[in-house]
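thoughts on my protein:
***
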Amino acid sequence: MQWNVVLTLLVLMGAIAPTAYRLALNKLAEAPQTAAGATVAQPGQNRREGCPGCDLANANMQGKDLSRHNYSAATLTAANLAQTQLINALLADANLERANLHEANLQGADLTAANLQKADLSQAQMLHATFIRANLEGAILSQVELRDAGLCSANLKAADLSEASLYGAILRGADLSGADLRGADLRYADLYKAKLDNANLTGARMEFATLPDGSTTDPGFVNSVNHTQGCEPVAEPEDSSENS
């Protein structure tokens, strides 16, 4: 009797298996594929949250996870963003004057042309962040992590960059006049055409850095690590002898 049950089950499994296999193949065929065979993300799947252009002055967003959110051109003056996660966030043209970004995580964030005048970014993580043409005048950037960050043509007048990590940062054409760079790590940084008038570089590490005149601190070294980083090229002065 038991053998009859086993044989019946085997017959049923043999009949069902091909049908299940065909259904699975049909489902796979219906899924959108890339040229390499990977499934394509559906429309809206990667849409960013946020509030571009919104007035969020004095808002309290401390400790929130706003990674990949879009706050481009938003007003965030005096906003509390301390310890906030803003990884890969869009903050281009945003007004963050006097904002509190203490210990915020801005890795990979885009702050192109943002206004961060007198903002507190102390101990913030900003690896690979973009601050091209951003206004950071008088900002507190002590002990920040700005390795490989793009700061081309940024305004850093009188900024506090003491003990900041600027290893490999691109500071071409940046204005660091009167900045506090005591104990900062500027190894491999690109300071070509940057302004360092009255900047305090006491104890700063400058090994292999590219200086404002294009020279380097170490013989034999030619270019800095990330000499472009999306920065606009600094215009070379015209040779007067060619025009005469």
About this structure: The CA atoms of residues 128 and 149 lie 4 Å apart. The two ends are 111 Å apart (CA to CA).
